[in-house]
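Please decode residue identities from the backbone states below.
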């Protein structure tokens, strides 16, 4: 099917469009604006990796251990998503590094506590899957909660993968896809790697915690896969994932609007 013009389709199908993202997504945002023109939105990238955009705000923050700049930018992103409704659309640009850059600590957990746990996991030798499983339980953004924050707006995710298997639920700790896991799993990982939790982190990883009412259950995950598959690595990967936003078939846009 011949792709149609995304800006015209967005105007036709949706009331309001926002671009958000994190990781290596400043390059992706630059490519999106090259194809679509200036867009409203916010992308968080690591220090020294910002790219010029005309509409999308690019904010730099720390990676791999989060900092206050990341917390402030993530809070701003939540504010952008909070007022959206069912007639709105979100394009999410997610790549490796998003897990540390999207930083919204779970209630009661401080940034310093998250920094300490991240640093301990990094030095412990824990695999990235274990690190992300813990991060999800200490976050208001990971494990599908970015998508939940945008509800009831429609969302489409374009991803660059640095995760084995290219599973959207593991790229950047799965902010737009995937189950958030359980507190018990996170606590077992901390015990396995001999990381002693603070009282607040112990509370966040103890007992049962209700999973967020994620957007993914309503938005048909197969639409994400049809629109753009995760791309391994950088270079051509950046171009493939970013230009994908400009060549998504009209049927996918219409499918998103008709859910």
């Amino acid at each position: 099917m011949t792709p149609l013009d995304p800006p015209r389709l967005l105007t036709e199908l949706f009331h309001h469009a926002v671009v958000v993202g994190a990781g290596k997504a400043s390059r992706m945002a630059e490519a999106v604006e090259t194809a679509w023109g200036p867009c409203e939105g916010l992308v968080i990238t690591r220090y020294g990796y910002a790219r010029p955009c005309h509409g999308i705000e690019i904010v730099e923050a720390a990676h791999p251990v989060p900092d206050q700049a990341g917390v402030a930018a993530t809070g701003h992103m939540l504010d952008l998503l909070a007022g959206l409704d069912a007639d709105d659309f979100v394009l999410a640009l997610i790549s490796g590094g998003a897990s540390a850059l999207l930083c919204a600590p779970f209630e009661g957990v401080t940034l310093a506590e998250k920094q300490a746990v991240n640093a301990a996991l990094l030095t412990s030798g824990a695999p990235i899957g274990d690190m992300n499983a813990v991060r999800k339980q200490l976050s208001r953004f990971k494990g599908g909660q970015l998508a939940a924050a945008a509800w009831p707006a429609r969302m489409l995710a374009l991803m660059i993968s640095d995760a084995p298997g290219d599973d959207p639920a593991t790229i950047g700790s799965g902010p737009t896809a995937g189950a958030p896991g359980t507190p018990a799993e996170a606590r077992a990982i901390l015990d396995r790697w001999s990381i002693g939790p603070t009282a607040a982190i112990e509370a966040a990883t103890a007992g049962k915690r209700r999973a967020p009412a994620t957007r993914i259950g309503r938005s048909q995950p197969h639409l994400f896969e049809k629109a753009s598959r995760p791309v391994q690595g950088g270079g051509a990967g950046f171009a493939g994932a970013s230009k994908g936003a400009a060549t998504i078939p009209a049927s996918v846009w219409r499918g998103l609007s008709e859910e």
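Observation: Confidence is low (pLDDT under 50) at residues 208-244.
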